[in-house]
Amino acid sequence: MSSTATPTAAALPRSFLYVPTVRPELFSKAADGPADALILDLEDAVPLARKDEARDHLRAWLTTRPAHDPGAGTQLWVRVDPDALDADLDAAVLPATSGVVLAKCTAAQLDATDTRLRDLERQRGLAPGSVPVIGLVESGLGLLDLPRMTQVERLLTFGLGEADLLGDLRMVRSARSAAALDALRTQVVVHCAAAGKQAPVAPTSTAFRDLEAFAESTRHLSDLGFRSRTAIHPGQVPVIHDVLAPDESEVEAARDLMARFETSAGGVTTAADGRLIDAAVVRGAREVLARAER
Would the annotation count 247 as a binding residue? Predict the structure, then answer.
């Protein structure tokens, strides 16, 4: 697998709101909304006959936006179609772009994307490796390729396209298959952690009117190790933020633990609940505080 410099990025956004690129009137409104990031979609949301039109809308709007700053404003990601990779990346890679979401991600497609991004960064005066990729795992091949894909430094993390993944695996979403689906999700979490990638992005729900169910599924996915989630409706975004933010008691406990750890100066000490403070406990406390800062 090819690799490049590790992309520089702030903490991964909590929420990613999908916006179809055939609806340019929504771009600025969505960017001014509550979502941490947009995914301007050149793939599933665009009919084949309107692909060129969508790319033109995207390119025109991105050129009006300021250059990407990882620590400021709404991040602007673009979902690209591997079946139209060159044309989509040509429209997507501009200074305002925060990164690329690669649909139907496999090792071969990720390698091709990495190569093309290196060319575009050089041609457009962007820093090498500055355009990160989130790879959407949507097939059995994508699952099998997880170990190889994590070798690509440009890859920030994975997301899941569960509807396509279940279809490819001939699985039906039901109470009977829930444990098997969680096992597939956990594979992605494990590979991200083992490779030192950021925690993966959880899939959205198309039942955007049932926000209680959306909150519960977000809690479940957070328990599995996901730390971000995609949305298809702005109403889902506050739910994502509320669920993924640690509560006040978690934050206070994490602060207390870190204070005890720092006071101990590397010596043996315990948390308020009597647990021995070791490296894993410290790592967990730091993650809680980082999530609170988001």
Answer: no
